[in-house]
Amino acid sequence: MRILVAEDERDLNRLIAKSLEEAGYSVDRCHDGGEAMDFIRSAEYDAVVLDVMMPVMSGHEVVRQMRAEGIAAPVLFLTALDSVDDRVRGLDLGADDYLIKPFAFPELLARVRAVTRKYAGVKSTVIEIGGLKIDTVSHRVSRDGKELALSAKEFAVLEFLARNSGAVLSRERIENNVWNYDYDGGSNVVDVYISYLRRKIDDGFEKKLIHTVWGAGWTLRETE
């Protein structure tokens, strides 16, 4: 599952992302409301963790704009504003849940699970490509009925490829989205995980799904 974290406190932003990644989520991060809308318009998220008081656009303005544009991804507000009126306003604008700062990370994870379960009820949670089935909620993967055991990071790479099926994804883009740190041009971590996935997804099957586009990156697609 892919989560956007929009929080202007950079240390807290990083800690939230780390907690979510350790729980198996793919995480994108930004630090103001304007950036948040750019991310939300350019990708499909299973949940948005959104600070209320941010530069450029407040969390309230972001969720209002999301709903006006028909973007249904669930929103979990983070805020130090703990009055009943503040909570009611956020929920009335279209947020799905509200978490008061300071908070415990286990509670944050539980609330993310709760809002993503709600969203999963109104959209398909299974991605299917050429006999490959990826359940983005249960993290179960199978090909032609055979269950495949993937690590959390292998699943995150595969899910990112699958959500962008047919598109060529560069090493930089995969690393920035799955590992959530700036690509330095010298790491081969993506190559290693693509190799792991090929062994599990393609070895033993006549049709290959993971394809290298030399000089550009990789794509997950069914061949003719």
Automatic annotation (TrEMBL):
Protein name: Response regulator transcription factor
DNA-binding region: 124-222
CDD domains the record matches: REC_OmpR_DrrD-like, trans_reg_C
Coiled coil: none
Gene3D superfamilies: 3.40.50.2300, 6.10.250.690, Winged helix-like DNA-binding domain superfamily/Winged helix DNA-binding domain
Organism: Cloacibacillus evryensis
SUPFAM superfamilies: CheY-like
UniProt keyword annotations, A-Z: DNA-binding, Phosphoprotein, Transcription, Transcription regulation, Two-component regulatory system
Cited SMART domains: REC, Trans_reg_C
A single BP term in Gene Ontology: regulation of DNA-templated transcription
GO molecular function, one term: transcription cis-regulatory region binding
Stretches assigned to the Response regulatory domain: 2-116
Pfam families documented for this protein: Response_reg, Trans_reg_C
Chain positions found as 4-aspartylphosphate: D51
PROSITE patterns linked: OMPR_PHOB, RESPONSE_REGULATORY
Native organism taxonomy: Bacteria, Thermotogati, Synergistota, Synergistia, Synergistales
All residue ranges annotated as the OmpR/PhoB-type domain in the record: 124-222
